[in-house]
Amino acid sequence: KYFRIDGNRMILGGMDHETGKQKGDPYAELEKYFKKTFGISNYKILKKWSGQVIESLDTLPFMGRTIFNKHRYIATGFAGAGMTMGTLSAMVNTDQILGRKNVYSEMFSTLRIKSIFKISLRGFNYFYHLFKDRFSRSDVSLDTLKKDSGAILNLNGEKVAVYKNEKGELNKLSAVCTHLKCIVNWNDSEKTWDCPCHGSRFKKTGEVLAGPAREPLIRIGKK
Ligand code: FES
């Protein structure tokens, strides 16, 4: 958990998790933490939001010349520290383009490989979800699915991402992520479909919110 206080306002964050692997309700957990830690009962929540950050396996950003194209430079993986790392990456990239030495070049190099083990684990994570999630079962059905909620259901032998709107109407999409074919999960806090393999996110109606997927989830039948 982390927070900033300005006068009588506070920004409270936390419950960080990998995309598609959310457990429980992060907002409820943060509120519980707030009450327990600060002992304040007279408060009002003004806004709630969440966002994704990109983090490398060794948690350091990547900056500088890319491996395969010496005229292409990269600046990514800031993991929520964009103000600092964005500025630093501009300095590193500028120095590399101008052929100047920069003490941070090596540390943030795109050529560094910190852990083959961790890279292998990521590969395993992909295959694990690719196969396991195809055989998982949901305890809800079309009838018991709550309004303004979604679930992955087996319908006619197919994994279907079903969203039920406030009026009780169903929106059915293929649950197969259009990136590399993992099965997406329903994120009830954000009302999105999230993929546990590489972090793609889709609106409840299937449009892409965040890549690497570029194509929307495929619609099944009529709305
Ligand atoms: Fe879904 Fe890669 S398979 S993001």
Helix content: 10-25%
Bound molecules: FE2/S2 (inorganic) cluster
Strand and helix order: EEHEEHHEEEEEEE
Mean pLDDT: 88
Percent strand: 15-25%
Biggest beta sheet attributes: 4 strands, antiparallel
From the alpha-carbon coordinates, what is the Rg to the nearest angstrom?
21 Å
Notes on the structure:
This protein is α+β, with helices and mostly antiparallel strands. Helix content is 22%, strand content 22%. It contains three helices and eleven strands. The protein has a four-stranded antiparallel β-sheet, with no helix packed on it. It has a three-stranded antiparallel β-sheet with strand order 5-6-7, with no helix packed on it. It starts with a strand and ends in a 13-residue tail after the last strand. The mean pLDDT is 88. FE2/S2 (inorganic) cluster binds next to loops.
Outline the secondary-structure elements.
Layout: E1 2-6, E2 9-13, H1 26-38, E3 62-65, E4 73-76, H2 82-97, H3 116-135, E5 149-155, E6 158-164, E7 170-174, E8 185-187, E9 192-194, E10 201-203, E11 208-210
Antiparallel strand pairs: 1-2, 3-4, 5-6, 6-7, 8-9, 9-10, 10-11
Bound molecules: FE2/S2 (inorganic) cluster.
What are the salient characteristics of this protein?
alpha+beta; globular; 22% helix; four-stranded antiparallel sheet; three-stranded antiparallel sheet; 223 residues; binds FE2/S2 (inorganic) cluster
